Fold:
Amino acid sequence: MNILLIEDDAKTADFIARGFTQSGFTVTSVDNGTAGLEKLQSAPFDIAVVDVMLPGLDGISVVRQARQSGCLTPVIFLSAKGSVEDKISGLQAGGDDYLSKPFSFSELLARIQAMLRRAQSLSQPTQLTVADLTIDLLTRKVTRAGKRIELQPQEYSLLEYLMKNSGKIVSRTMILEHVWEYNFDPQTNIVETRLCRLREKIDKEFERKLIRTVRGFGYVLE
Structure:
C-alpha cells in the first residue's frame, strides 16, 4: 500500500513515516502544499495523510483542488485545530476523516486501515460474467444468454464461488469450506448433488457446457 504524507513538521513527518514503514506501507513524504497537490494529481496513492497548516498551499485547499481535478484518493486530515467547525470544513473540502493533534500513532493506523477497507469494499465488482453467464451480486439475479435462471440459495452460493474462481480448479473440500463454511462428513455427497442440480439449470439447455469435472482434482467453471 502506498501512502502520501503531506506534513511540514519534520519531527512529526519522521514519526509518522517510520510508523507506516514498520507497518508495511510505502511512504512518500512532501513538506508543502504545492508539492503535495502535484503528487496527488500525478501519482496513484492508496491513501493520503494531509496536515491542514502547510506552507505554500494549506491542506484544505490541497484536497479541494485535488478533488476538483478528479482525484479520488482517500484523505485523512491532521490538524491542531480540532473544533467541530474545523472538522466540518475539512470533510466538506473532500476529506474522508479528520484527526486532531496530538494523536497516537495506533489511532492513526487504525483509521487508515478502516479507510482502506472501505475503499476496497467500494471497488469490489457488482457483477460477475463468464462467457454468456452473468451474476448480479447486488440483486442475486442470474442470467445466461439473457435468460433468467432461478437458483436456490445454496445453488447460488455455489455458482458465485465457482465464478469468482473461474478458470481455476476447486476441490470438493474447498467448496465445502467456502460455500457451507464448515466440514461435512467425508462421505457426504452434498457437493455432487448440488453441482448436478446447478448443471441442470446452467448447462442443460445450452450447447456450450461451462461447469466441468476434472477427475481426481475437482471442478472448474470456464
About this structure: DSSP finds eight helices and eleven strands in the chain.
